[in-house]
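TA notes, week 10

Several of you asked for a full example with nothing omitted. So below is the full record: structure tokens for the whole chain, then the designed sequence directly under it. When grading your own attempts, check the secondary structure regions first.
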């Protein structure tokens, strides 16, 4: 899924560290975050809040009540025209012909190697009209990637980077619908998971989607940046009686890890295929030719090179991203994401290991500062919300 990479114990030295000579981008809510005392960090070229009241507190609020996230750094790309389907079918892994107007799907922009250029959400706005939400740091590259494959294949298709036209706020948690119902004209009981519609929220027109990246019920609202303060403040006011609090990227990351959602640059990259990442369900080989399809078919027949597994630490150690994974006295893989899980109260992680070493219940070791700490593989996801 789409998100960020901070852990529940982000250290003080992870504070804002801009690249010399490069101005960080700022969302329309930047001044509000600073005024509220949020700790700001650099992420994907943006200055973003990593936490307000603390990552653990914010994480638990989303699991038990609701949290409000500024995710305006995410990118938005429109694909429109009579050959839009042809283009998207070729550059993405999922089957856009299965979408109906006002429906969204999780997908991936593909590389010829079978790896992933980026993961994304594809929304069908209308006939031959689509809207992609992509990861912040990859937006320009994703746009160029799509345009590259338009040439000679879908020349009549218009591809536009419309990121500057949108702010995006995510309202997540079991009380999200109750809170949002107070400030929107949409009957939320009729808005199904992975569907969206044009809506009025807090008096502002925009696109309201029921998606999310936390493992909880939730909504994303895309709307004009000039209205950002109004929407943010009215949502917080409406949700205060329900326990709604503002949340930063740190909690967004630990929440997605508990739900075992992949993160680009960690579980996903150009060297890792969707089958290896456990995302075969968004890989529709039967739809016809698309980037990387032949590689995926070969892997399906001959087997993958590695598998993504989940693990829990058996002691108090925390496995960090990039730490080596040992099986039977041999370093065979690496941790892709690791953190303390505030709701589960465990130290958990995701890692790639050889297929023969991937099995729930099997013990492995994580090398932490030269010491090997015991861990046990577990079935994914670590956390799954109860459906009502």
């Amino acid at each position: 899924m789409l998100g960020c990479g901070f852990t529940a114990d982000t250290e003080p030295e992870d504070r804002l560290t801009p690249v010399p000579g490069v101005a960080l981008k700022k969302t329309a809510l930047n001044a509000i975050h600073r005024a509220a005392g949020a700790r700001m960090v650099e992420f994907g070229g943006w200055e973003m809040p990593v936490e307000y009241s603390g990552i653990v507190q914010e994480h638990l609020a989303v699991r038990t009540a609701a949290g409000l996230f500024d995710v305006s750094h995410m990118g938005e790309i429109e694909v429109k025209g009579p050959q839009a389907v042809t283009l998207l079918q070729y550059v993405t892994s999922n089957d856009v012909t299965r979408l109906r107007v006002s429906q969204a799907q999780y997908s991936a922009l593909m590389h010829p190697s079978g790896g992933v250029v980026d993961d994304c959400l594809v929304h069908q706005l209308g006939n031959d009209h689509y809207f992609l939400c992509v990861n912040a740091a990859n937006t320009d590259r994703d746009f160029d990637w799509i345009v590259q494959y338009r040439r000679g294949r879908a020349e009549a298709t218009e591809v536009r980077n419309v990121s500057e036209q949108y702010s995006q706020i995510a309202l997540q948690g079991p009380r999200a619908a109750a809170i949002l119902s107070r400030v929107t004209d949409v009957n939320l009981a009729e808005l199904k998971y992975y569907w969206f519609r044009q809506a009025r929220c807090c008096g502002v027109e925009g696109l309201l989607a029921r998606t999310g990246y936390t493992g909880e019920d939730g909504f994303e609202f895309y709307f004009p940046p000039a209205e950002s303060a109004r929407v943010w403040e009215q949502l917080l006011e409406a949700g205060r009686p329900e326990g709604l609090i503002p949340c930063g990227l740190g909690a967004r990351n630990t929440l997605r890890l508990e739900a075992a959602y992949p993160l680009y640059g960690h579980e996903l990259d150009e060297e890792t295929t969707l089958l290896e990442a456990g995302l075969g369900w968004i890989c529709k080989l039967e739809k016809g030719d698309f980037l990387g399809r032949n590689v995926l078919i070969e892997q399906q027949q001959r087997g993958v090179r590695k598998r993504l597994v989940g693990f829990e630490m058996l002691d108090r150690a925390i496995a960090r991203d990039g730490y080596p994974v040992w099986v039977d006295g041999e370093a065979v893989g690496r941790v892709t994401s690791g953190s303390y899980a505030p709701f589960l109260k465990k130290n958990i992680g995701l890692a790639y290991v050889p297929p023969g070493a991937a099995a729930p219940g099997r013990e492995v070791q994580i090398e932490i500062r030269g010491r090997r700490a015991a861990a046990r593989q577990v079935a994914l996801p670590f956390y799954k919300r109860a459906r009502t």
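Helices lie at 30-35, 55-64, 84-91, 139-150, 176-180, 228-239, 249-258, 293-302. Use that as a sanity check on your answer.
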